[in-house]
Amino acid sequence: MSPHRRTPSTQQSQLNEAARLADQLQAAGYTKRDIGRIINRDPSLVSQFYTKNKGAAFVPALQQVLAAVQTGGITDLPELASLAARHTTRRTTARGTRARVRSKAVLITPTGSGTGRVGAQAIASGSSRLRPLIAEAARQGLRLAFTVRLAKTGYLHPSGSRTDSPGIRRDVIQRADHTEERAYGSAQTGGHDAADFARRVDAAGGDVTAAVHQWLVESGRIHPDAHILHLEVRTWRPR
Question: 155-160: which pairs have CB atoms within 8 A and are 24 or more residues apart?
């Protein structure tokens, strides 16, 4: 007897509600990464709707988002994310209490020193882990600097150019994979106003990657189609 194979309809019937809603959003043209941004979670969680039966807490939000897409004609990701946030409730434990959300603490010392780093996966979903650091730095009136890594061809100016990063030639790191790290801002040069960058992040719908990319393009440092591969943000208290 040949082994039993699941038919597509059988597989579909075994999907939980979050996965079914995610399927419909994907059919409407959204990727798992898009869905992750809409619910303010890593795209890997969306994959776990299918593999680990997760996502129950996001069903009301996904229902509202799907309705907004299908009947309201809303397609803007930040607008859909704002809608989802109003309908996302924290899951409950077996005892009926609200579950704790695991998150990394944002540490800013009394001197204003704080650092946050993200790699490729977090960057692709908007570097959301860095947003609380920038927001807290803005609240405390701090300065900030950031380091980005791009393909060398993504930069408009040669490494060490005073037009690109005046006075911080030492902060250019060239790598064997033809990428280059460059730092923008330092305590010596005064850095950037954290409040200004917080406003930029808010204007980008919370997408830190997009806000930094926009600043680099607007200030004539990178090509518009360049991709950020690594991002680090540092803060300090001005003297």
Answer: 155/180, 155/182, 155/221, 155/222, 155/223, 155/226, 156/220, 156/221, 156/222, 156/223, 157/221
Please give the pLDDT value at position 12.
46
- pLDDT of residue 196 exceeding 70, the answer is yes
pLDDT, residue 92, reads: 58
73: which 2 tokens? 């004609």
- Pairwise CA distance, residues 216 & 199, whole Å: 16
Dihedral of CA 146/139/205/55: which sign? Answer: positive
144 compared with 186, residue with greater pLDDT: 144
| Average pLDDT value for residue range 171-200 | 84
Distance CA 218, CA 7 (A): 52
The whole-chain average pLDDT of the chain stands at: 82
116, 157 Cβ separation under 8 angstroms:
no
Closest among 147, 136, 146 to 112, alpha carbons compared: 136
- With beta carbons less than 8 A apart as the criterion, state whether 194 and 137 touch: yes
**DSSP bridge partners of 155:** 222
Most confident of the following: 25-39, 73-87, 180-194, 213-227: 213-227
Task: Identify the three-state secondary structure at position 235.
Answer: strand
